[in-house]
Amino acid sequence: MILRKSSLALISLSMAFSVGFGGSAGLTKPATPGSVSRAIAQNQLPTNWNVFETPEGAPGRRIGGGTRGTCPKSASGMIALVPENNLGLTLSNTPTFLFYVPKIEGADPGQIEMEFLLMDESDPENAQEIYQHRVPLPTGGGTIALTLPPDNNLPPLQINQFYSWYFSLICNPKALEPSMLSIGGWIERVESSPTLTRELEQLTSRDRIAVYERELLWFDAIGSLAQLLRENPNDPLLRQRWNALLESVNLSEIAQAPLLNLEQEQTSTRDRR
Q1: Residue span of the signal peptide, if any (predicted)?
Q2: Which end of the chain is more exposed for a tag (fewer CB within 10 A), N or C?
């Protein structure tokens, strides 16, 4: 299980990224719709998602570790669809997070719940939980998508600020001391340049994926691609792009997992202080 706070690591992480990235996307040559479509079809978009260095000791785990307590052994196979350094960038105020959850044999309905937490750690001494989402475990394994809602009670994600997120499987949630298995990482919302904003406005949602990849906007790339695949599950070019994107972060083993749609059954938000 990973810890839900690491303020000193977050400070170091923020310093490293402010030097390396500069907090603004849109520094490369604009694309045209035709060139983007050809690049997607031909998989000509090699991307190094780990160009940003994270300091030693920074929290983050994208693959579940050993189980403990009452959690079934198979629960340790859950995976966050993020780069290996556990950090991704976004332009969006309502980014989508994706997680693979294996089919857990022998789990009774209600025995295991899934929980997502988003933490504002801008104040190292007073980390704030700003979003929580908990739903029952789906009956079959697959990749699930959780999108931050456009909720008036959820203040906008701040530009150039890091947020930590945690995805957990809670075993026997009604017990006095339920067992928990967690993975987690970081997300930063960055500001789009005027050039990038104009470029994206001229492209279709399909063609924007290549631009997101070019600009290393992980959460925008994978969230948009997952949405398109749910709407067009038999599109071979989208499937090819999905496989290539997961391969770029060494997650080819879950590329064929079904994309699951989950209804939000319980959501709570807390104001940022």
Answers
A1: 1-21
A2: C
